Amino acid sequence: MSKIPKNTILSKQRLAKATYEFWIDNALVAENAKPGQFVIIRTSEKGERIPITIADTQENAFRIVVKAVGKSTIELCMKNAGEQLYDIVGPLGKPSEIDCYGDVLIIGGGVGIAAILPIAKALKNAGNKVRVILGAKTSTELILQDEFSFADKLVICTDDGSEGIKGTVVDGMMEEFNLEKPNVIWSVGPAPMMKATSMIAAQYGIPIWVSLNAIMVDGTGMCGGCRVLIRKEENGVTKEEIKYVCVDGPEFDGRYVDWESFIRRLQQYKEEEQKALERFLE
Ligand code: FAD
Ligand code: NAD
Ligand code: FES
């Protein structure tokens, strides 16, 4: 059978408000993907490139979960089973560092839950005790909860208290810390969530992997669009380094990310993004 990717959407399912799961026919991505990696998708020839995490794989297909937040993700979420995507590049980025660490705490917020699923599974298979915290604004926005049944412990947090702990994943994280401190943490979700969880991890001196959702253009380390400042103290000396999320990441130890500049860069095209969305919706 030919392995030339067709990029046909094999199935589409609505998981929550504006959030869809797709299985896409692409044997090359399916065979090579490792937890933590992503693809860059263009829905049409003139479309923007959208980075999306590979949430699962089967023999000839891979799964993504997409939240429609702007022009390109709305365009993608309007596609249906049987339609073809224009092109897909990947798997991209460095895979997660899967190892046996002992006690691992894994935190997913919103659509970030889809990104932590393959990482959590791989860490469980590597022999870790895996505690998982899932957060959503409200119970109807909680996705993939049933797929975490392999975890040693599953904690649900909703901002409005409609399910589990009333509060954000940070409240769940503090409760778990009070029971037992983990050896390492993964945290994927909105940037303010990854920042808040990283601040706590820093206080306790626990490594925390965050997957940075930088704005990307080429995905090859050439354009500089996804750059992030990493700042570390070594022997009393502050060392600053520019890293590129697409090739050096997407995972970084959140204790060393310069969150202020990262969050500022995420906002920099807000006006243009709004105009593109308005034009698209006309
Ligand atoms: P835009 O018009 O570009 O933006 C609309 C709104 O979203 C604006 O308010 C803008 O500030 C905000 N925004 C723009 N880009 C981002 C961004 N990268 N992250 C957060 N907010 C943003 N999304 C998923 O739904 N599922 C995934 O599995 C997923 N995985 C990702 C993996 C990586 C490595 C990266 C870098 C991003 C990932 N994202 C994922 C985020 C996704 O790429 C963006 O939501 C998308 O590019 C936005 O494009 P847009 O044209 O629809 O929205
Ligand atoms: P959301 O705004 O609905 O938030 C989900 C949960 O995150 C909240 O219920 C709460 O528990 C937590 N949270 C949010 N803000 C917080 C804060 N300030 N402090 C503490 N906890 C907070 O999430 P969404 O709209 O689904 O957005 C998900 C984000 O995840 C997007 O920004 C997307 O780009 C990102 N993402 C990244 C990747 C990746 O690999 N980098 C993959 C998928 C999604
Ligand atoms: Fe261009 Fe990373 S997207 S350098």
Please characterize this protein's 3D structure.
With 282 residues, this protein is an alpha/beta fold. It has three domains: 84 residues, Translation factors (Elongation Factor Tu (Ef-tu), domain 3, Beta Barrel), CATH 2.40.30; 106 residues, Nucleotide-binding domain of ferredoxin-NADP reductase (FNR) module (Rossmann fold, 3-Layer(aba) Sandwich), CATH 3.40.50; 69 residues, no CATH class. The chain is 27% helix and 32% strand. It has eight helices and 16 strands. The protein has a seven-stranded mixed sheet, sandwiched between helices. The chain has a four-stranded antiparallel sheet with strand order 1-2-6-5. It has a three-stranded antiparallel sheet with strand order 4-3-7. The longest helix has 14 residues. The radius of gyration is 18 Å and the shape is globular. The N and C termini lie far apart (42 Å). The mean pLDDT is 95. The structure holds flavin-adenine dinucleotide, nicotinamide-adenine-dinucleotide (NAD) and FE2/S2 (inorganic) cluster. Nicotinamide-adenine-dinucleotide binds next to helix 3, strand 9, helix 4 and helix 5.
Range of strand content? 25-35%
Largest sheet: 7 strands, mixed
Task: Please tally the β strands and state the result.
Answer: 16
Please state the overall shape, judged from the principal axes of the Cα atoms: globular
Name the hetero compounds present. Answer: flavin-adenine dinucleotide, nicotinamide-adenine-dinucleotide, FE2/S2 (inorganic) cluster
